[in-house]
């Protein structure tokens, strides 16, 4: 009888503990967010990822009635900031502005990553597709992609292309360009688009496959010269700029995207709430107008749809890495 009583008491205690934990979790989910949210940008200030994070972060904070604090944690092609979120508490208070590089490319480019982009991160929404733009220093006396290729072939190893970091879409676009054009140009990685743009304007590097939000204003101002967009079709934000394919390298195409993720294990109700609110922000007329003007196509899909995009992108970029021979130890 005593054993039976002990077992009943143990079962009741376990049930009570489970109920307490479940109630606490439900309450935390209902109260979310009850404190500021950190949004990690894994690149230096001034680039497209930073611009998008600040546009969305401000509106998201207003809607959630809690500040969204932007933190730039650059390094290792976006791996450092992304890893910080992958190892964060799964409570929805630490998000990352995910970029194709650290989410879908670097798993093939680096010998090892400190995180698994599929297992350690929970997708919230793919925010935008972004057109990359091939921009050059105006001192480089070429007016088309065909002329750039001709110059590069006449001076092998003397031209250099910047990127916002090893493994970024800009880096892989440059590697793909090298392979398809058969040219020898040197990759120079930076800790984000902002520093890379500054050195390109200063003439330390000669070309850059950068995202539209940071590159287009510099091209419009005349500080840089735009030769072509990396997409298959011209951008509605800059219809006067040809595609790289039509400007001298047929068949060239390299797309880029940004999205929001958090730590794996975050309760689904929190992820769903973040999804609803971020998608709502992306579709606000003033936000959408700003993003489209910068060359971004608003997506705003579901967590499940974004997860599928990531799984499909990984093997696609693995093939580009293999074909180009690019590798980082």
Widest β-sheet, arrangement of strands: 2-1-3-10-4-11
User: How many strand segments?
Assistant: 11
Overall pLDDT:
90
Shape: globular
N-to-C series of helices and strands = HEHEHEHEEHEHEHEHEHEHHEH
Strand content: 15-25%
Largest sheet: 6 strands, mixed
- Secondary-structure content class: alpha/beta
Estimated helix fraction = 40-55%
How far apart lie the N and C ends? 65 Å
Low-confidence runs: none
Rounded radius of gyration (Å): 23 Å
Helical stretch tally? 12
Task: Furnish the topology, listing elements before pairings.
Elements: H1 2-31, E1 37-41, H2 48-64, E2 68-72, H3 79-86, E3 94-99, H4 100-109, E4 121-130, E5 132-136, H5 145-154, E6 160-163, H6 169-181, E7 186-189, H7 193-202, E8 207-211, H8 212-221, E9 225-229, H9 244-247, E10 256-263, H10 268-282, H11 285-293, E11 296-298, H12 303-324
Parallel strand pairs: 1-2, 1-3, 6-7, 6-8
Antiparallel strand pairs: 3-10, 4-10, 4-11, 5-8, 5-9
Helix pairs in contact: 2-10, 4-12, 6-12
How does this structure look, described?
The chain has twelve helices and eleven strands. It is an alpha/beta fold and 329 residues long. The strands form two sheets. The protein has a six-stranded mixed β-sheet with strand order 2-1-3-10-4-11, with helices on both faces. The model has no long low-confidence stretch (mean pLDDT 90).
